[in-house]
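Journal club prep — side note

Before the paper discussion, L.F. wants everyone to see what a predicted structure for a comparable chain looks like in token form. Sequence:
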Amino acid sequence: RVYGLVAPGYEMAETAAATIAADEASFTGADLSTKLKLLGVDVASFGDAHGATSDCLDVVYSDSRSGTYKKLVIGRGGELLGGILVGDAEAYGTLRAFTGSVPPIAPEQLVLPAGAGAP
């Protein structure tokens, strides 16, 4: 598997160093969550951003005028599984912290702009 981020490389290096030092270690994968600025546009992804988990639900907010796209992937039990943020990634830290748990507010409220109500 090829990763385009430096963090997985660091984790692989730690595993290799531990193996050389005769410690039992194995690389089991890496957290691929990332937040970038591409050509002036904030982009972030975290967790199961593409909804690979069965029985999940996508909650999407898109605004072509502001160039904003937000998608959250919600599990059957209401837990936040992952998401994608484009144009406005301000909530990245908060959303990443909620990943794997049920957020304290409705998913729609996590993707709607400040001051907007749920549909």
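L.F.'s comment for the group: DSSP finds three helices and five strands in the chain. Keep this in mind when we get to the figures.
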